[in-house]
Amino acid sequence: MKAAKGTVFKYGDNVDTDVIIPARYLNSTDASDLAKHCMEDIDKDFASKVKAGDIIVADKNFGCGSSREHAPIAIKASGVSCVIAKSFARIFYRNSINIGLPIIECEEAADAIGAGDTVSINFDTGMITDETTGQSFKGQAFPPFMQKIIDSEGLINYINSKD
Amino acid sequence: MSKMTMSQKILAAHAHLDEVFAGQLIEADLDLVLGNDITSPVAIAELNKFSKKGVFDKDKIALVPDHFVPNKDIKSAENCKCVREFAIKNKITNYFEVGKMGIEHALLPEQGLTVAGDLIIGADSHTCTYGALGAFSTGIGSTDMAAGMATGKAWFKVPSAIKFNIVGKPSKWVSGKDVILHIIGMIGVDGALYKSMEFVGEGIRNLSMDDRFTIANMAIEAGGKNGIFPVDDIALAYMKEHAPGKKITVYEADEDAEYDEEYTIDLSTLKPTVAFPHLPENTHTFDDIENIKIDQVVIGSCTNGRIDDLRIAAEVLTDHHVAEGVRCIVIPATQKIYLEAMEEGLIKTFIEAGAIVSTPTCGPCLGGYMGVLASKERCVSTTNRNFVGRMGAIDSEIYLASPAVAAASAVTGKLSQPSELGL
Fold first, then answer.
1. What is the distance in angstroms between the Cα of B188 and the nearest Cα belonging to chain A?
2. What is the extent of the structural domain holding B394?
3. What number of other Cβ atoms are within 10 A of residue B393's Cβ?
4. Which residue from B41, B51, B143 is facing A154, i.e. has the nearest CB?
């Protein structure tokens, strides 16, 4: 994915993996099943309102807690095209890259972008544009090694391509 | 001269490099790859997408169904069946079926599968527990687990570190849980984000192995990549008992290793500490805790289900009874701990006090089963997370505490410390 555009769902600090996908649903590994309950304990309307391409914007330490890959899987399967946050918990960060869910660290964007804004992202340049307010932000670039995993759309494809 | 932390030295050795620096991306050889019944089925599905088939080393993979085990429902049973069939097909040496199973982070050190100097990844965030023995161990997700199982390697961004200088001796009812809750309260749930938490200092000799497992276990609750202790006589004795014959490599930080921050923790000043809803950093001591009535107590988990924890809980519960209207659930973390608790008479103490004792499972910690909370219920729990809805209804509340505080609270029916029972 080289670009994304969608409506913003906005959250605060420390959005943990237990609210992204509560453990009571972890008896399933089916992505579409998980998507039905995504963000349920923090925003019960998320699953019914989210549309393909929409964007999550949050404050610091997004995805803290459990190592469950079900969390980025649920977000990706909900149709979310990118998560922008001030910072990410490290396991969530790895997992997102490994499964090909685009994520961007950008403190300024997280502060300025409001819920419901229309935001577009150019993944080649790292530019985030809030089309509702006209403001633009530059997200932090990935190290080249991680960019290769992202470009391969996940770790498994990357490793397969090396063999 | 190099200036590496203890964690960096282990990473350098496993990447076959003389030296590494914070921020460097490396690929390193793994000594153990771990998964449970929640994360392994996703990993197994990913593994099947590899062009290269099979696992890198059947002896270096540990599969521990423990979260929703014994199977809590049909879907969980199917997940366990998937893990079981994979283990059989790939002749995985360290697959732990019900009967051998325990909570992974209590079980693997007990089985001698995690020792000093090892580099371990696990598809469970509390994999950082093994740092108590001087290993570099960290939680990862299912795809990393799959790649680890297939290739025996993982990529790491070399972390910088925070140094915690531990001094002094804790008072009677202060244990590892109070130490780590105090630290998380001080630095916050992202205070060690992406970093190693390196514990050093003369006070460590006053912390039992079980205290250290508890402290390393909750490094992730401060956002840490790993938590790690120096390898002293207590750690060596533990490994001699549990991992006889296994190669142990002791790494020490360089004298001039660089740390982002340094803190001194004087154990003698710590008090029983409780994390209030809904973050582990929201800590209080009993100086500012008022009358908080509770409905349930859980004593167990990968954080506090070890024999020391059960001994402390039993000491508090002896000659006392669980308060009317309170459910007290005790969960020994492994079969061996369960048996030890039985032989020492602890199980009798629990049952006579009106508590129940469950077979090893992660169950209630993550709201799986065996103690799920209803709306507006409050639980004092020796587990590790008190996020919204973690143990059940989204308007239930979790207070994280030590086994001593949990047991005392079970007796009084409100959040309490042992001194309130005259102990």
1. 11
2. 274-421
3. 16
4. B143
Does a structural domain hold residue B1?
Answer: no
B365 domain-assigned: yes
Distance in Å, alpha carbon of A112 to nearest chain B alpha carbon: 22
Q: Report pLDDT for A2.
A: 77
Q: Please indicate, yes or no, if residue B368 is contained in any of the structural domains.
A: yes
Helices within chain A (DSSP H only): 17-20, 31-35, 46-49, 70-77, 90-99, 107-112, 144-151, 155-162
Task: Determine, for residues B193 and A90 on separate chains, whether the beta-carbon distance falls below 8 Å.
Answer: yes
Q: Are B71 and B154 contained in the same domain?
A: yes
CA distance to partner chain A, nearest, from residue B115 (Å): 22
Q: Cβ distance B126 to B36 under 8 Å?
A: no
* Domain count of the fold of chain B: 2
CB contacts < 8 Å between A and B, how many? 134
8 Å CB contact of B141 and A155: no
Determine which helix (DSSP H) or strand (DSSP E) holds B135, and give its type and residue range. none
Show which of B266, B297, B319 is a domain's final residue: B266
Chain segment A63-114, per-residue pLDDT in tens? 999 999 999 999 999 999 999 999 999 999 999 999 999 999 999 999 999 9
Q: Are residues B411 and B299 in the same domain?
A: yes
The residue of chain B with its CA nearest to that of A29 is B42
Claim to verify: residue B283 and residue B250 sit in the same structural domain: no
